[in-house]
Amino acid sequence: xxxxxxxxxxxxxxxxxxxxxxxxxxxxxxxxxxxxxxxxxxxxxxxxxxxxxxxxxxxxxxxxxxxxxxxxxxxxxxxxxxxxxxxxxxxxxxxx
Length: 96
Ligand SMILES: [Zn+2]
Known about the structure:
Elements: H1 3-9, H2 25-29, E1 33-38, E2 43-46, H3 49-57, E3 77-81
Antiparallel strand pairs: 1-2, 1-3
The chain binds zinc ion (ZN).
């Protein structure tokens, strides 16, 4: 299932109270992204939320979530990214 289909399957309506981005699926449903910083090798990566949700991790809570750096294997620190326009030609590593 493509990322757009995952968003359409479980859309989040933004109410006056705001949105709660508490699981790995919620940022994807709200067009947010999730990045991770590796303090050991000083690099950023973007998590492939669509793939994580497709692999059954959508209900996993963001609080305490520590993705593992693909370069060094160290624990990453996650950072929520708001909706942004895509930049052509950007190349990012992926931390899972
Ligand atoms: Zn690392």
